[in-house]
Design goal:
Chain A is of the alpha/beta class. In chain A, about 45% of the residues lie in helices and about 10% in strands. Chain B is built from 9 helices and 5 strands, in the order ααααβαβαβαβαβα. Chain B is globular. The chains are: A alpha/beta (about 350), B alpha/beta (about 220).
């Protein structure tokens, strides 16, 4: 099977020849072509070349075009900082939304005015020229509440949810309008799926009813837009106790990429049992394991994930969040190797 | 009035009401330490328990902490006047190279809710600054936060800097943050790892109690 056939089988809840694998290699790919972080994060050709190199070197089963969480907010004028060896982030001293009144300044804008969103679209277009039909391309987009938090700051935004709920909701709606155009453009450029980062739909952050009140309607609309463009929706959420149930209801994702078991499951095996026939499970190796502990411990983690969730298909072995951008890539190689050996399905053994 | 009313309003995050009730309690002659313990700290304790049990979440903790702060500001002059002392002193910061602060802020708020005095030295804090602050401010605990796998290692540098400064026997070092684990804390020689803000506050309060008892012997 090639990568596309293997991923298709996983998404259709069938056993492929082996478990598909994707360490979420994003910023780390820059090192494969000797690029600095800023260039990788701002220059489409550099970024695309790095991803292509990663596919070639590691025989990856898909590509997740995750640049950083500040790609979207830049379009609303958020000043960013580009550290030498880390992902870009907002200049925390200069948020666009300084006061609750500023939420009303957040309008729906044309995504094409956002340089970084346009760069991401271009990356996908470049990747599609080589990978389309062979290796699935999944594009990562920060959800509307997440994007809004990058324009404010999380702490103040959380209090605004109580103090100024209607202003936040209006802004979420406007941001979502822009993200809908953007996601559509990514699909048109060649993405097979959009992976929405719904960071706030987890017990790490807010209650289930609060997430439903503030983001689920917007996510429902965004998911519908992606479907209309002929692509799949996926979710990424690396929070603890994530809310599978309400997100499946709102987004109907084909797959969920996660790090911890959801709020209504005791462990990964229970998650497989409860949700394994409804959604493909992607994960859930802790990225810290790529940096700390021994190879043996890392291998054990990989095997445990396969044991808990691979049976019957519907599973992709992956890190539960981005593979550390500056970590040695040897652990990524080990997990790929384990997927190819330990992850072989018995019907193909 | 009953002091429990302060606690209930604090749990609901109603800052203006808490402020007014604290003033009312003062006017009615309640001692400052009772208003603090039975009103403000009781409310934050309750929030801490509910947070740990996943009954309330980050936004609820933040608005409760804001309410506590408003009430504490009213009470502060009286507490100073009556000589009420903090249960202990903690120096907290996010380690060098890391600008994330919400986890650290939550821990600081919860610790204040335990009656601890918290010296927040911010984000991107080099190891030496943790040590200097702990010495200058006579802290019993250093708390290090990190959200990035790339910055966790600095926590080990803080432990080593404390050893080099000769303060390791009188300062406990606590670590936390999304990528941090108990195994990692043990590996770098920290005294404690806690998985959430409420547990961190409880652990810090317990350390301070132990250290006080040790001193008293």
């Amino acid at each position: 099977m090639n990568a596309r056939e293997r991923m298709t089988a996983a998404l259709e809840h069938r056993e492929a020849d082996r478990v598909p694998v994707y360490p979420i290699l994003a910023g780390a790919t820059r090192r494969l072509i000797g690029a600095d972080y800023r260039t990788w994060a701002t220059d489409a050709k550099t970024c695309a070349d790095a991803y292509l190199k990663a596919v070639e070197r590691y025989d990856l089963d898909c590509v997740l075009t995750l640049i950083d969480l500040s790609v979207e907010c830049e379009a609303w004028g958020q000043k960013l900082v580009f550290p030498e060896n880390e992902a870009a982030h907002p200049d925390y001293s200069a948020p666009v939304i300084r006061e609750p009144e500023d939420y009303d300044r957040i309008e729906q804008i044309d995504y094409r005015t956002g340089k970084r969103m346009m760069m991401h679209v271009e990356v996908v277009r470049m990747l599609a020229k080589t990978l389309k039909g062979k290796v699935p391309i999944i594009s990562f987009v920060f959800g509307p509440l997440g994007t809004l938090s990058m324009l404010r700051n999380q702490q103040d935004m959380y209090m605004d949810l109580y103090d100024e709920p209607e202003a936040v909701k209006r802004a979420v709606k406007n941001v979502a309008g822009t993200l809908a155009q953007y996601a559509g453009a990514l699909c048109d450029a060649g993405a097979d799926a959009i992976m929405w980062d719904t960071l706030f739909a987890s017990g790490s952050i807010m209650s289930k009813p609060m997430w439903q009140a503030f983001e689920s309607d917007a996510m429902r609309m965004l998911a519908q837009t992606v479907r209309e463009h002929g692509c799949m929706n996926m979710i990424h959420n690396c929070g603890q106790n994530i809310y599978f149930d309400v997100q499946i209801d709102a987004i109907a994702p084909s797959a969920i990429s996660f790090l911890y078991p959801p709020d209504d499951c005791a462990d990964f095996a229970a998650c497989k049992q409860k949700y394994g026939d409804r959604v493909t499970l992607i994960g859930c190796l802790p990225p810290t394991g790529a940096v700390y502990g021994t190879d043996r411990e890392w291998d054990k983690l990989c095997r445990e994930q396969i044991d808990a969730m691979a049976a019957g298909g519907g599973f992709v072995l992956a890190t539960g969040c981005e593979y550390p951008a500056n970590a040695d890539l040897k652990r990524a190689e080990r997990m790929i190797e384990l997927a190819k050996t330990y992850g072989v399905y018995q019907t193909h053994a | 009035m009953e002091l429990k009313e302060i606690s209930l309003q604090l749990e609901a995050g109603r800052a203006k009401e808490v402020k007014a009730l604290v003033q009312q309690a003062i006017d009615e002659g309640f001692p400052a330490d009772r208003i603090l313990n039975e009103g403000l700290l009781a409310g934050m304790n309750a929030i801490g328990v509910r947070f740990r049990n996943n009954e309330v979440f980050v936004p609820e903790v933040l608005i409760a902490a804001r309410a506590m702060k408003m009430g504490a500001n009213v009470l502060k002059p009286l507490l100073t006047e009556s000589g009420v002392q903090a249960a202990g002193r903690v120096c907290i910061g996010t380690v060098m190279g890391d600008l994330h602060d919400i986890g650290k802020n939550l821990v600081a708020m919860m610790m204040e809710g335990k009656g601890l005095e918290v010296i927040d030295i911010g984000t991107d804090v080099p190891p030496e600054q943790f040590i200097e602050t702990a010495i200058e401010e006579d802290c019993q605990i250093i708390c290090c936060s990190a959200l990035l796998t790339t910055t966790m290692n600095v926590m080990g540098d803080v432990v080593r800097a404390a050893e080099n400064a000769g303060i390791r026997d009188r300062v406990k070092i606590m670590v936390g943050g999304a990528p941090v684990t108990a195994a990692f804390a043990a590996q770098i020689g920290a005294d404690a790892y806690t998985p959430d803000a409420a547990s961190a506050a409880e652990q810090a309060a317990a350390f301070c109690r132990e250290m006080k008892e040790k001193q008293a012997v």
